[in-house]
Design brief:
Residues 20-428 form the Amidase domain. Pfam families: Amidase. InterPro entries: Amidase, Amidase_dom, AS_sf, Carboxybiuret_hydro_AtzE. This is AtzE family amidohydrolase. With 462 residues, the chain is an alpha+beta fold. The chain has a single domain, classed as Amidase signature (AS) domain (Amidase signature (AS) enzymes, Alpha-Beta Complex). The protein is 36% helix and 16% strand. The protein is built from 14 helices and 17 strands. The strands form four sheets. The chain has an eleven-stranded mixed sheet, with helices on both faces. It has a two-stranded antiparallel ribbon with strand order 4-5. The longest helix has 26 residues, at 279-304. It starts with a helix and ends in a 26-residue tail after the last helix. 55% of the residues are buried.
Length: 462
Amino acid sequence: MPMMDLARKIRSGELSAVRVISQTLQSIRERDGAYNAVTRLLDKRALHAAAALDAQISRGDPVGPLAGVPFGVKDLFDLEGLVTTAGSVVLNAQPPAQRDAEVVRRLCAAGAIPVATLNMDEFAYGFATENAHYGTTRNPHDTACLAGGSSGGSAAAVAAGLLPLTLGSDTNGSIRVPASLCGVWGLRPTQGVLPLQGVYPFAASLDVIGPFTRTSADLACAFEVLSGQACRVEQDISALRIGLLDGWFTQDLAPELEAGVNRLLAACRTVRRVTLPEVARVRAASFVITAAEGGALHLDRLKREPMAYDPATRDRLMAGALLPSMPVVHAQRLRSWFREVMHAAFEDVDILVAPATPGAAPRLDQPTITVGGKQVSARANLGLFTQPLSLAGMPVVAAPLAPAAGQAVGLPLGVQLVAAPGREATVLAFAQAMEKAGLLGFPCAGAAPVASAGVAGSHPAG
């Protein structure tokens, strides 16, 4: 059930918040073993909040727009009373959080109820959600395949129908990559729009947080609550100028991905090709900045307890900590230049379209993908198309392409819809129009667990 429909039924009393939360917790216990998306359940807190909400509704008190909506958070968001692990055991001895992360507080103020923490790459350093401490998160559409990362648990929980709303973070593609591979909607907002208080950092100058949902309308609603900005104002999208990013962003695409992008563009009135210069160097700059900032953040702890880290994460962080200063300075200069390039591009277009990943999710046992005619690491290159765009700090919707009519539904494929800074409302309006047209949106991998009325003997609906 879409998030907004669920909230409406709870507000009206048609559904009991306690029943919804109880069913959600039970569904996770029964079904998450196949996916490994969830690391901790918040039973006591969630059921207490649900009972309080039902009491408010029964008294006729006003409740928020997300009343009773269960949500989960990537395990780098603070939750009061819990240790924030950031996907690691390194932080286990840290004191519990004294308050929720600010964005969690905003969702709770709107009536939503946190029920789970979600799996991730250790310290958000990866594109696969293969975690040495908490295991690998598997793709709900094919559990032999990766869910993507580093917010893989957040994307998989939505794709599996376990939760209608989750929070993740995106430094170089950690929302966009798993959203694409899992066939759900994700938003990397304009950098700085959503507060990072209470969110464990990775690379502070690039980190952004955002939601995952099953529909574009739910994504817009979640962003409204998180940001306080109105996004559901009706907009005429017919006059929008669409730019297709070519060059770097057209290499090694799966044929079905290219066909899906072409179907999307065919529905747009004005389309032009846009070539961004020096994208390979921009992607390299993103690598350098991420490595340097991540390495600097962890250097002291790496000196004290290096063996507590996942070996792959430890090696990346140590390499970043050893970078000399000049490459970092040059990377930051390139970043500033690229932002100007992107701003200039939006003088001629309103939305840029690019693939989110080169193709569908790789198999867990598939170590490489083809890039430029060469076999390269799948895990390191799933962010091929997301990393360069991260440096611009602009809002990006990760949108699943709709399956082609008359063809068997395979694994999901996704695109990035990019807008100028602060233009979330425009790109979300475009996304909703394309979903209504049947060009975007992918079916959920599992039956939604929370749709029964709050009466004895009722049964969940799809």
